[in-house]
Design brief:
Layout lengths: L2 H43 L6 H14 E7 L5 E9 L2 H10 L4 E5 L8 E7 H11 L6 H19 L6 H16 L16 H4 L6
Antiparallel strand pairs: 1-2, 2-4, 3-4
Helix pairs in contact: 4-5, 5-6
Length: 206
């Protein structure tokens, strides 16, 4: 038996084992995705119904006191979240009872400052909140920032295999930075999809 014949069986077994491991990993990922989708569907189904007055008040209060942040989260990825800080616990309880926060934090009072309460949403919960209050926003900056935050979240869920993904994420961050600058809106809102990346960065379209 030649050397090649002697090593062919272990080589084939190695390929088979790698394929089996890859299949098992894929099945595990699919199972996690299915569980995540089921949890999101259950959360959507159990969400409370809001009155117009509640949504309008929440939108107005958040426009004045809340923040919508988009930041780099490792590599080319970009993440977004919304948060609200107040010294009035009743305000935080109002938001928490309607949009359950992914994070609630309390900063204790001291001799010079009252206690502060912080409410934060990210992921699907953030997206639901933005979609709920978006129709009741008044300022153009907030409307455009909320639209961008939703678009960024949806782009991340679609995945990063698109070769234009890094440029798209950079474009999103550039536009968010422009919207967050004080003064008049620096640039117009455009889609962050690949065909809009050049426009987002202020350069000529290809």
């Amino acid at each position: 038996m030649s050397y090649a014949e002697n090593t062919s069986v272990p080589f084939e077994r190695s390929i088979f084992e790698k394929q089996r491991a890859a299949d098992a990993s894929r099945r595990c990922r699919d199972k996690k995705r299915s569980a995540r989708r089921a949890a999101l569907e259950l959360e959507r189904a159990s969400r409370p119904q809001f009155t117009v007055a509640e949504l309008a008040w929440a939108a107005g209060h958040f426009e004045g006191e809340g923040t919508c942040t988009v930041t780099r989260s490792g590599g080319h990825h970009t993440s977004s979240f919304v948060d609200l800080t107040s010294t009035d616990r009743e305000v935080i309880d109002f938001f928490q009872s309607r949009w359950s926060a992914t994070s609630v934090r309390t900063v204790p009072a001291n001799e010079r400052h009252k206690a502060k309460y912080s409410w934060r949403l990210s992921g699907e919960r953030m997206r639901n909140f933005l979609l709920d209050v978006q129709p009741y926003l008044v300022t153009e900056k907030r409307k455009k920032l909320f639209a961008l935050a939703i678009e960024i979240y949806d782009a991340r869920r679609r995945g990063s295999r698109d070769p234009n993904y890094p440029a798209m994420m950079n474009a999103y961050r550039e536009q968010v930075a422009a919207l967050n600058r004080k003064g008049p809106i620096a640039i117009e809102y455009q889609s962050g999809r690949p065909d809009g990346v050049a426009g987002l960065l202020g350069g000529p379209s290809a």
